[in-house]
Design goal:
Order of helices and strands of chain C: HHH
Distance between the termini of chain C: 54 Å
Order of helices and strands of chain B: HHHHEHEEH
CATH class of chain C: Mainly Alpha
Shape of chain B: globular
Largest sheet of chain C: none
Chains: A mainly alpha, B mainly alpha, C mainly alpha
Distance between the termini of chain B: 25 Å
Helix content of chain C: over 70%
Oligomer: heterotrimer
Number of strands of chain B: 3
Shape of chain C: flat
Number of domains of chain C: 1
Largest interface: A-C, 50 and 48 residues
């Protein structure tokens, strides 16, 4: 492995870890559930993506034989599943909000319902 | 002939590429096994796929993928700043995006794309009214956001699949 | 340079794990906890990949792949449970 690829791998590692951290910061800091959902689904996915890319470059240019591309399978899988997870969680959260509201006495009804706007 | 062997070329290609990447060794025997899987699996699962959507313009899809990749990275910087900056300046909002497309698969694709581009997250695809409900982290002007999503992502997707 | 980068990466991901754990314990709702659990799984994948580079060993890869698969299935199952109150219909 020459100096240039080593620098690229190092940069990707730091960048990826930084994005993983940012996702967690978003998860811990943001005020309500729907905004919290933004951090992990995107920043964390991108961060792990960068780390996996670093790993692919590292093992492809290492002493071992040939290309190492199986990291791309994990990358593909994460990028496909992240929106599905987020979608289901958002759906579950809205469902819980709606059922919690239904249990209360019907003073203020669905003024928050996003379908109405 | 080609249509019969590969009823769903996109699925076959995905299976073949995933197999090759996962085995992590490009010996002829493994490639052959991957190719036979790429032929067999779409045939065996044919009855589970409701309407195999056809990619009308593959080169358009490649360009879209490029735009999408660049968007993910650049827009992530914006969200990174928003998340680590002062939070009271954000104005989160639920926005309804009226859709022009009427194809369930493409609508799902659009919802996934919206979810992966930072700042917006699709929450629900209403297939009765054809409205995509999205949540935006910071949307002072919801109408501009609707226009941007329709123009940047929905238009190319509709062109690609010809619907 | 690579060793330093890997060490920085370990520290950053460690802090991320701590923050996610905070959200997992804090809640306040069940959906927050599921989200935190899912994120914990993805952070663990990041950590495993980093360990793989650190040890120059591909043995960690399969674990990362399995974690990605099982984490997704688990999250979906939990969400379905919240939505329906039942897993097997």
């Amino acid at each position: 492995m020459n100096a240039a690829t080593e620098a690229a791998v190092a940069a990707l590692i730091v960048l990826g870890a930084l994005f993983v951290l940012l996702g967690a910061v978003g998860l811990a800091r943001l005020p309500d559930f729907l905004t919290r959902l933004h951090g992990p689904t995107k920043a964390t996915t991108l961060g792990v993506g960068a780390l996996l890319l670093a790993s692919a470059i590292f093992f492809s240019t290492g002493d071992a034989t040939g290309l190492s591309l199986h990291e791309l399978a994990v990358l593909f899988f994460l990028f496909v599943t992240a929106p599905v997870t987020a979608h289901l969680l958002a759906k579950a959260a809205r469902h819980r909000q709606a059922s919690a509201r239904a249990k209360e006495p019907p003073t203020s009804t669905d003024d928050e319902c996003p379908g109405g706007s | 002939m080609i249509r019969q062997t590969f009823p769903q070329p996109l699925l076959s290609l995905t299976i073949f590429l995933l197999w090759t990447v996962l085995t992590n060794a490009a010996s002829p025997a493994l490639l052959l096994l991957g190719a036979s899987l790429a032929i067999a699996v779409p045939r065996l699962t044919r009855s589970f796929w409701p309407h195999p959507p056809r990619l009308a313009k593959p080169w358009r899809a490649l360009r879209f993928l490029g735009v999408f990749a660049v968007d993910i990275v650049t827009a992530n910087w914006r969200v990174a700043r928003q998340v680590s900056g002062p939070l009271h300046r954000l104005s989160p909002a639920l926005v309804d995006v009226p859709l022009d497309l009427r194809e369930p698969f493409v609508a799902t694709l659009l919802a996934s794309v919206v979810s992966l581009t930072p700042g917006t997250m699709s929450i629900d695809v209403d297939r009765e009214r054809w409205v995509l409900v999205i949540h935006a982290l910071d949307a002072p002007d919801p109408q501009a956001l609707v226009r941007e999503i329709k123009q940047r992502y929905e238009m190319p997707l509709r062109e690609m699949f010809g619907c | 340079m690579l060793t330093a980068a890997i060490e920085i990466g370990f520290v950053l991901i460690g802090v991320a794990l701590a923050l996610t754990l905070y959200r997992l314990l804090r809640g306040p709702d069940t959906t927050d906890r599921i989200l935190a659990l899912d994120t914990l799984g993805i952070d663990a994948i990041a950590l495993l990949v980093l360990f793989g580079i650190h040890d120059a060993s591909t043995a960690y890869f399969e674990v990362a792949l399995l974690l990605a698969l099982l984490g997704f299935v688990g999250t979906v199952a939990l969400c379905k449970f919240l939505l329906r109150g039942d897993l097997i219909e």
